[in-house]
Amino acid sequence: MNRFDNCIEILSRIATMQLRWPKNDDAAQAGQLLAESYLSLESRQAADLRALIDDAMRRTLLGLAIRCAEKALNSGDPAWVRTALILQAIEGFDYDYRESLRAAVPIRYAAWKTAAPVGRWLGELRAMASESAASRLDQAYRDDSIRSDALQLGELVLVEQDGVLRFRPAPQPARRRRGHEQIRS
User: Fold this and answer.
1) What is the pTM of this model?
2) Tell me: the pLDDT tens digits for 81-90?
């Protein structure tokens, strides 16, 4: 099997995996395998692979990138941040630019906590990402002032569940009614 077909097979496996409430690390491991296989492609093959990915898989890749950020936090291994960045490059900011930016928030946080060399990795990824994705990756990760409260901007919170750190949707604030101020405690 050639490298391109290997990437297709891994994508097919990822499509069948449970990402929302994972019971094991199979999805993260598959994401890591996809990322490494993707980097072994020639740039033309990488473009062909990205062209085959539909919106459902793009959403899946964003979710998987967040799972890899969780893996980085739980293991302390910045290599998982690299995997998350590669998955975002494969997704290409093509599903919904806003969702891609939201996914960048936990990845940035994990990069900060693990002291990952994001700038260096983005430089290496430029040749394997589309021109627009490379530009958007630079935009999403160029600011080095990552703070712990940055999670609020992404509408996510970091919680510990059974000894494992996970990102979850933040509770929605009370909606402001027309003509009334929001009550703050």
Assistant:
1) 0.85
2) 999 999 999 9
